Every structure is written in C-alpha cells, then in structure tokens.
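Exercise 3.2. Students should predict the tertiary structure of the chain below and write it as structure tokens, then compare their answer with the key that follows.

Predict this chain's 3D structure.
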Amino acid sequence: MCLYSRSPRPRPKWLPINRSATPPVLTIPIHPQRLHFASTGVHTRRMATRRLSSAAAEATPASTGEDVDAVLDACRSLVAISAWSVEAVADQVDLVQLRVLVVLATRGASSLKDLADATHLHLSRASRACERLVGKNLITRSDDPGDRRVLQLGLTPDGEAIVRKVQDSRREAVAPVLAVMSATRRTELVRALRAFASATGEVGHGDVSALAWTQ
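Answer key:
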C-alpha cells in the first residue's frame, strides 16, 4: 500500500445557508479607454465649477449710495449745461420742437409715426409740432418713394443750423470744465462716461436723442 495515498472524502449532499454572509459582488471589467473618458468628464465638470465660482467672485459688486449720489451730481451739472444751451435757441423753437429737430438730425428723414415713437410724444402732439416747424421752414415734408401714403419729414438747412447751434453751445460749456482737469482724469472720465452710456442702453432707458441730446 502506498504511503501517500488518501482515501476519498465523502461529498456532503447539502450545505447550510449562511444568511448573514455578504452577497458576492459582480465585477465587470471596464476598458481602460472608457475609464479615461469617465475621469476626463469628471475633471471637466470640476473645472467648469471652478470657473463659475471664480467668475462669481470677480463679479462687480452692487453700486453704493455714494456711487449713485456722485452720478446724480454729475447729471445735475450736465442738465444745467443742457438747459443753458437750449436758451440759445429759445427765441426760435420750444423744447418739444427742439426735440423733434434733434431726432431728425440723429436719425435722418422719418415718418410722423416713427418720429412720435422716437420722441415719446403722442401722435397728435408730434403732428402739431411738425406743422409749426414746417411753417418756420425748419423741416420739410415729402412723399415716401416706397409708399405714397406716407410723408417723410426731414431737416432744412435752417433746422440743421439750430441743432448745430445747440451742440456748439454745449461744447463751449463743457470745454472749460475739461480744461481744468488733468489728462489722466480726462481719460478716466471719458472711459467712465462711455461705459455709463453703454450701460444706459443695456438697461433699456431708450434713445437719449429723445431728450434733445446729440453727439
């Protein structure tokens, strides 16, 4: 008899079930390329989140009461200049008529409806103002080549001269103020005013030409 031989062990017919044992985990092999794509997506999302957080941190804070007061002080100065320039033509046109002239100078020939919308005037009031301006030979009326039912309103040379006189008066008032400022302050002021004018358009305050301001 061989010393290394063993007798076969009997196999049990059944095994007890251990219900507290952890169920086996199913392992699915993942291709390395798919694993790379998954990790790249997570990295991209994290970078996007960081960029948003950085942008929020760099956002411009809300304006303070002092900022608003400073702008209002500057506006009062500009309004005073505007009122003074209107006085230069007060013997020729009133404020409503000047508004019509300025809009026509800015936009060119327009229909009565477009002019009323641009000046924020009722159609009947805009019509009366235009009648007076036609009588003063400051605007003209002509047929629209594209639609004979529509009349086009435009400036005459005398009307252009009135708008130019108002503009020159404002330049004469602004120039001395800028002259006492340093070149650096003037550059900062121009940049700030351009940004303010751009922001005014973005928040929907309309066309400033309706207020008799032109470039």
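Discussion points: The helical segments are 32-58, 65-87, 95-107, 112-119, 123-135, 157-179, 183-202. Confidence is low (pLDDT under 50) at residues 34-42, 210-215.
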